[in-house]
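Hi R.,

Here's the chain you asked about this morning:
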Amino acid sequence: MGRVSLYHQKIEPRLEEIKAWRATRMTKADIAHRLGVGSDTLSRNMRLYPELKEVMTLPLMTPEEIKEKEDKQRRNYTRDIASALSFIKHRVSSQLEMKRVYSAILDAHQRLKLEENLSEEAESEVKEELIQFISDVLSDVKLTDSDIEKLKAIIER
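And here is the predicted structure, written out as C-alpha cells:
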C-alpha cells in the first residue's frame, strides 16, 4: 500500500477547522504551522485540491470590519506621523541630519505625485500643504532664508 500524502494525513481531516481559522483572518503561514506542514506544502495542495482552496479563501469583510480596519489604519497613520514629527523636532541636531529629513520629505512628495497622478490644481494644493508642513515641523530648527527658498524651489519642480 502506498504512502499517505500530507494532504490526506494532516490537512483534509481539518478542513472545517481551517475554514474557521480563515474566518478569523488567520494567515496562511499560521495555518500551515498549526497543521504541521510547510507554507509551500499548503500552497501546493491548494492548487491540487479545490476543496482546500475554497476553505482557504477569505470571507468578504463586513461593513463593520471594513470600518474597523480603516479606523485602525487612520490611528496608526496618525501615531506614526506624530512619532516622526516628534523625532524630527527633538532629535535632529545637525545640518546633515536636517538635509536627510528634507530629502526624505521630498522623496515622499515625488512618490505621491507619481502614484496619485495629481491634477495641476491638486498638485498645487499638495505643494502648499508640503511647504506649510515643512515650515511647521522645522519651526524650531534654525534655517536661513536661503535654505527655505531652496526648499520651496525644489518642491515647486
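One quick note: The first helix runs from residue 6 to 11.

Cheers,
M.
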